[in-house]
């Protein structure tokens, strides 16, 4: 059976269902009867709007025989293809239908339900999920939760959930039932695959309490310290390659709160991930303030950041892998206001006029003096046109 490529005509919003739309396409199908021609056209419409899944299997066999000193070889090839398409059709109009000795053709205007995921399209950002960490019982849950929370607030990744399977499957069963409108079924098939996963293990975590006696007075002096050591990895799902691995150590003297230790540990892991993949950048400079493209809980008022200009690309002489661009520190700024999606900083050291959009901002301590020039240092930043850093 042969199908003809249709033309995408228009898209109209379906006001009754948020995020739903109706896409209208014009298609032509063929078949032995008018009904089969219409069916083939409807399938073609679904393929145009939602795509299709093609599975191909090829089997070959070879037979060789020899007679009168001559060898003959016979090769048989069996190839099978299966094309699958799915979706919901809101309706269709038959434009033209004709039948002849070779079969029937039908031209249709078909209206197909299509669901657009609300918000920023996740497929434009790298998709990542934070999997449950191992060890540490409740501590591991708090750390993983904090990592996920800060990655979401950074808005650099499409952070996907891989834990609430029971709730998702319950909602999916509802969509597949006969209790919801046909347009709601267009939500099916929108689950995104992952680019990366973050995994980790709690090496140690706890609260250490001890006491000392003051030599002069003999009085007892109590001490407390919350500590944690966590190892984490970023793994590329497609290749299972470990793209980044590190160990974070936290020691909070005077803190008798393991939950606070988990928050600090998770925040430190998230910040390292962001610094290595999506370092903060300058997006604007006006009225004596520098605007950075990150906010929320990932940035604190009073924090200091060093501003770096990017230079030449550094390439590893052995692997030929880009290591990043050289960085030259040109200024230090202090955060004075934090918004959900960006933060504002004022100049502490350097020349405000030398700061340009796109410069890198890295966390640092307040400068002790404003003297001295900075030497270029090697960066781990490789910036593709689509943004982010090449892992």
From TrEMBL:
Gene Ontology CC annotation, any one: outer membrane-bounded periplasmic space
Keyword Magnesium: no
Pfam family, one: CsgG
Lineage top rank: taxon: Bacteria
Membrane-crossing residue ranges in chain numbering: none
Keywords tagged on the record: Signal
Signal sequence, start to end: 1-20
Keyword Signal among UniProt keywords: yes
Protein known as: Curli production assembly/transport component CsgG
Organism: Parendozoicomonas haliclonae
């Amino acid at each position: 059976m042969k199908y003809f490529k249709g033309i995408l005509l228009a898209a109209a919003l379906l006001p009754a269902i948020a995020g739903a739309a109706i896409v209208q396409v014009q298609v032509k199908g063929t078949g032995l009867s008018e009904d089969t021609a219409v069916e083939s056209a409807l399938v073609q419409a679904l393929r145009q709007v939602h795509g299709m899944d093609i599975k191909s299997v090829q089997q070959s066999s070879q037979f060789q025989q020899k007679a009168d000193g001559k060898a003959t070889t016979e090769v048989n090839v069996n190839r099978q293809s299966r094309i699958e398409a799915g979706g919901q059709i809101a309706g269709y109009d038959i434009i033209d239908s004709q039948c002849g000795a070779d079969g029937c053709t039908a031209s249709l205007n078909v209206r197909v339900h299509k669901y657009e995921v609300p918000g920023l399209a996740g497929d434009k950002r790298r998709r990542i999920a934070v999997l449950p960490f191992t060890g540490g019982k409740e501590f591991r849950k708090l750390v993983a939760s904090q990592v996920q929370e800060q990655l979401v607030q950074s808005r650099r990744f499409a952070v996907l959930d891989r834990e609430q399977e029971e709730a998702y499957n319950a909602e999916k069963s509802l969509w597949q039932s006969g209790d919801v409108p046909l347009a709601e079924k267009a939500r099916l098939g929108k689950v995104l695959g992952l680019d990366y996963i973050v995994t980790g293990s709690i090496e140690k975590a706890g609260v250490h309490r001890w006491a000392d006696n003051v030599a002069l007075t003999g009085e007892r002096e109590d001490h407390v310290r919350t500590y944690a050591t966590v190892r984490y990895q970023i793994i590329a799902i497609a290749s299972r390659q470990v793209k980044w691995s590190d160990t974070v150590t936290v020691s909070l003297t005077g803190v008798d709160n393991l939950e606070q230790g988990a928050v600090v540990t998770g925040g430190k892991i998230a910040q390292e991930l962001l610094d290595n993949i999506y370092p903060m950048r300058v997006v604007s400079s006006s009225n004596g303030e520098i605007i950075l493209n990150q906010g929320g809980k990932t940035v604190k008022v009073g924090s200091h950041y060093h501003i770096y200009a990017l230079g030449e690309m550094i390439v590893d002489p052995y692997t030929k892998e880009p290591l990043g661009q050289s960085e030259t520190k040109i200024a230090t700024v202090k955060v004075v206001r934090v918004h959900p999606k960006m933060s504002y900083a004022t100049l502490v050291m350097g020349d405000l006029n030398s700061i340009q959009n796109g410069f890198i901002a890295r966390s640092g301590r307040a400068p002790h003096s404003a003297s001295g020039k900075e030497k270029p240092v090697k960066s781990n930043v490789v910036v593709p046109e689509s943004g982010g850093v090449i892992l």
